[in-house]
Amino acid sequence: MIEPNHLPTSSQPPSAIERVRPLVRTRQYREFTEDPPDQAALDAITEAARWSGSSNNGQPWRFIEIRDRTSLRRLAEAGLPQTRPLLTATAAIAIVLPVDHDRAISHAFDDGRAAERMLVAASMLDLGAGISWVRADVREAVGEILGLPADRFVRTIVAVGHPTEAARRPKSAPGQARLPREQVVFEERWRKE
Ligand SMILES: Cc1cc2nc3c(=O)[nH]c(=O)nc-3n(C[C@H](O)[C@H](O)[C@H](O)COP(=O)(O)O)c2cc1C
Questions:
Q1: In this structure, is residue 110 part of a structural domain?
Q2: Count of domains for the chain
Q3: What is the distance between the alpha carbons of residues 70 and 75, in angstroms, rounded to a whole number?
Q4: 66, part of any domain
Q5: Inside any domain, residue 39
């Protein structure tokens, strides 16, 4: 009998690397089909984001779920080329932060934690997501599209949707997507090249 491929083929418990596979296989997608994600999926992604840790548990973020195609395309056009994922995205989540120069670094760190969680959550829901960074020179335009007050800004917009076949293809030759492990992970002490 042929086993369905999502079932374990042996009674061995999954290895540590298999257990972290949802993290390892989370990638950046930049092109999506016309089929939008369910509202429940989008809400699950913002729920995962809302539960991210932040410096001092300050939770500086607010999340805007965007499904309106006109807004998505306006955001894309405002920030190209970084916002390319929003050209075809059927949904997106903007991470809104306070304008606060004293906490800029810790807020940027918190921003990244929430963004990565959203990418992982999308991947776990068989969706794809992509980070679009909003350059400083287009922050005002993006703020206007999203109706932000003057004391808030967006650096990161996470595009969400069903990636196209082309977007799912590997972007690099086999073995080239990341630096070799031995160049990146050291034991006990810094190792000179
Ligand atoms: C801080 C940060 C900013 C990024 N900004 C953008 C961006 O503005 N536009 C974009 O298309 N991808 C952006 N990316 C995605 C990276 O290009 C992507 O993670 C990298 O190429 C690896 O892709 P992969 O995970 O699919 O292998 C950003 C990633 C990070 C971590």
A1: yes
A2: 1
A3: 9
A4: yes
A5: yes
Q: pLDDT tens digit string along 60-111? A: 999 999 999 999 999 999 999 999 999 999 999 999 999 999 999 999 999 9
Which has the closest alpha carbon to 76: 30, 123, 42? Answer: 30
Q: What does pLDDT average to over the chain?
A: 94
**Is 177 touching ligand 1 by the criterion CB < 6 Å?**
yes
Q: Could you give the CA distance from residue 70 to residue 52 in angstroms, rounded to a whole number? A: 29
**Which residue from 111, 131, 135, 160 has its CB within 8 A of the most atoms of ligand 1, so it is best to mutate?**
131
Task: Give the residue-averaged pLDDT of 51-62.
Answer: 98
State if residue 132 touches ligand 1 by the CB under 6 angstroms criterion: yes
Q: Cα–Cα distance between 121 and 128 in angstroms, integer?
A: 9
Q: Is residue 155 part of a domain?
A: yes
Q: Which domain holds residue 72?
A: 28-162
pLDDT at 6 over 60: no
87 vs 5: CA distance, rounded Å: 34
- 50: domain CATH number is 3.40.109.10
